[in-house]
DNA sequence: ACAAAAGTGTTTGGGATACACCCATGG
DNA sequence: CCATGGGTGTATCCCAAACACTTTTGT
């Protein structure tokens, strides 16, 4: 930090972009919008926005996410800051990217229409503007890494969920298949799920027990890291 | 990203800061400098600098690191971007932090004097300016995480090193002790070290075999992730 | 009655852990 | 000859992986 340099950075703009993940019961998806202004009008893109003077990057990411989805208190985490010189063709913009996990059911059809937004399966994302495809790839890697040892999967599911739903979620994230007996054994052995006396009967005649994530029990494990998969 | 917003971000400056790790054979250390200008003149601080118009954040971090250490081609990775409103008391500055791993022997005493720099044990870092202590804490966490599954430890050692040196390095990073038999077994079983016909005889009468990290063998393991500890 | 998904238990193998003695050499 | 750190092998345990049948109930 050179002594005279407190006025050096000019004309570099700062943006945030949000990689928003959802899970529809079968596949992991990302939420994209059709860009409504130049440059790159009409192309698919992540939702983003410029950082304002009096907000932190976290604030800005939450603002952008709230604007697009109407949701607050969403699980969100900083991913990476992208600063390639020509990443935005219109100006020098560096972007602080965040990834968010939401319950897809809480994102209304109405909101989708309002913002020309659409869910795309993670393996079937179209060509996006700038470096947004790279951002999504990086976000998927981070999601895979974190979800193996932290209780994030639940953020993508409704509050009440079944073990098979959770298993299919992990199968989608890792593009693999998991033995349902071993999965159930391991997940329940963590001792952080609470079984309700209700069943979910949409997807089978027998019905599957609903569970909730037990934050209290999880927080009692001071280890911080578990092995979900 | 609102349509009219390409001129919104003004007066927000962008800096980079480097958390530079070294290992002296006994403890993990970080390199700090005595700040030579206001604000916070004379306080200990991470090495940093402002982002210039025509460089990426990675370029800037490398520039700063090279300026302080004279080193190039150092292992460096983006850590996190810090954007709290009052993190820098003189202006609105967001900082993109990087962590770097260097062989402490390649950093000369001369360079230390020139920059009023000093190595501090990671568990004995003084109070630093701004949010730099937070940055170091976060960097240590990331180092712990990555070093468990990626071949980064070697970056902190000379090209030729002994297994006991490597073990003590891991012990320092994790603040734990490791069984030397089990450690040697596991590390060698990874098949990525090449034993030389040389011994290091500084630290024992018998002498310990020197090894080098075998990049070729490592790259042949397409898994990308290993289990070092 | 049958189709479709839920739920459950046992066996096996491999990696992690625990643990103690001999080796080489400089002083 | 002895003190110091380097190097090695084995027994045990636990967790992960593989694997198939019964239950429930809507149609």
Automatic annotation (TrEMBL), chains A, B:
Domain called Nudix hydrolase: residue spans: 11-144
Top-level taxon: Bacteria
One Pfam family cited in the UniProt record for this chain: WHD_NrtR
Gene3D superfamilies: Nucleoside Triphosphate Pyrophosphohydrolase, Winged helix-like DNA-binding domain superfamily/Winged helix DNA-binding domain
Coiled coil: none
Full protein name: DNA mismatch repair protein MutT
Species per Swiss-Prot/TrEMBL record: Pseudochryseolinea flava
Origin organism lineage: Bacteria, Pseudomonadati, Bacteroidota, Cytophagia, Cytophagales
């Amino acid at each position: 930090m050179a002594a005279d340099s407190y006025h050096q950075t000019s004309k570099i703009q700062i943006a945030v972009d949000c990689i928003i993940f959802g899970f529809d019961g079968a596949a992991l998806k990302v939420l994209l919008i059709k860009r409504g202004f130049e440059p790159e009008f009409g192309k698919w893109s992540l939702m983003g926005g410029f950082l304002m003077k009096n907000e932190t990057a976290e604030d800005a990411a939450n603002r952008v996410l709230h604007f697009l989805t109407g949701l607050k208190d969403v699980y969100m985490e900083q991913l990476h800051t992208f600063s390639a010189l020509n990443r935005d063709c219109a100006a020098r913009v560096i972007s602080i990217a965040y990834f968010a996990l939401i319950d897809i059911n809480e994102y209304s059809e109405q909101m989708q229409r309002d913002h020309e937004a659409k869910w795309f399966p993670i393996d079937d994302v179209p060509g996006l503007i700038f470096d947004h495809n790279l951002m999504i790839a990086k976000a998927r890697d981070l999601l895979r890494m974190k979800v193996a040892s932290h209780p994030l999967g639940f953020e993508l599911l409704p509050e009440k969920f079944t073990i098979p739903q959770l298993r299919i979620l992990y199968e989608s994230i890792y593009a693999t298949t998991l033995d349902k007996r071993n999965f159930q054994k391991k997940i329940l052995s963590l001792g952080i799920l609470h079984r309700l006396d209700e069943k979910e009967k949409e997807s089978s005649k027998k019905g599957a027990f609903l569970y909730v994530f037990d934050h209290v029990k999880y927080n009692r494990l001071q280890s911080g890291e578990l092995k979900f998969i």
